[in-house]
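Much of what follows relies on a compact textual record of a protein's fold. Think of the row as the fold of the chain written in a discrete alphabet. An example makes this concrete, so a full record is given next.


***
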Amino acid sequence: MSATKDNMEWAELLRQERLGDETYQAEEHRPLFTQDADRIVFSEPFRRLANKTQVHPLYEHDHIHHRLIHSVETSSVGRSLGLAVGHWLDVERKVLPSGVDKFTVGGTVQAACLAHDIGNPPFGHSGEAAIGSWFEEYFERQGILSDVSDGVKKELVKFEGNAQGFRILTKLEMYETNGGMRLSLPVLGAFQKYPTRARTSDHLGKAHYVGLKKFGVFEDEWDVFCSISEKLGLFEESSDHGSWYRRHPLVYLVEAADDICYEIVDLEDAFTSGDLDENTVISALRPIAKKNEDLSQSTPAAQIAYLRSVSIGSAISACVESFKENYEEIMTGEFNSSLVEASTLSQEFSEIHGLASSRIFTARRKTELEVSGRSVLRRALTSLLPLYEDLAKKEWDANRLGSHFQQVIRALDLKLELVSDNATALHSMADFVSGMTDRYAVKVSKQLSGIQ
């Protein structure tokens, strides 16, 4: 490792400081992590998650999860994980800084979990792929805005909701370009599952380090992330393809909360939607729940709800033990797995994941709507492109655009204040399209292309 210290230190990792407001002192009754959670919950990007796909796009059934409910449930599991680990750190005298306790750890993980999907585009992961493929084709055509760095091209072609989330939290919301939501540094550190840029993860990848599986920071926000990481004492590594960082230890708890919720709850949703029958779901959950009592007197839905609940509790315990067992590697930055994968329930979760891949993610209705969603997003980007091309010709002065484009800006409430060159123009397009809800994306796509 390139770091001079052997271990990351909790005094730095839980440094109680806000991004963009370093001198702020929290009130005794309202710690920073509580304020962070409030700012996230009351933000527009978080509210929009209520109409963004979790697994099943544009579903009419009220009990099918969307991104907002998933985020709330993940934050609940994350808080439990953080409280348990924080209590263990205190009991084992792992040197938590003065004024910091298990509630700080739990609250930090909870806030980061609330934000973990805030940058996801419409139509889930298929939306990411649709945006990325549009940019890939655009760069091949060498359009008027294509004169950007290779790093910018890579990050747009591999468009990533995690990086968009970091951009929202640190730049686009509230205090634009001056700290964004101004969240505390520990929450931003715990949020960042992939502490690198696209051009670095593209060459090194997951085989090199679990935090390089994807990228989590755009080129434009890299300096901000480096400043946060330095203050948190994260270990920096260098390579021929750019620097990257070892994960903040609390990232593993945020990741575990997400893994637990989507792996287990996806099964319940699959039963509700009719993609999986009750026996398949019950058989998958029982090994995790470790409950064999007779549930035959309950309805299938009640049986599955019970097993889902117990399974989540069992998974939380397993991941807490996994954190304890791998603590030394986590603190040196060498832990190269997820807590679920390293837990005693690894095999059970692997089987659930396999079931989801073969039966849920390939369900006909989901596939049909993902194909439609892809067309919707690509049509929206294609329709927006002439406006941005004309803006480039007008030297980035929106006031010089013609009346039609002025109408489009007003109709869509398009934000162009940050647009000053080709790279910021392309990211502005990605900001707008990725920020749309599923249904609004359909509406805008029709509106821009003249479809009634």
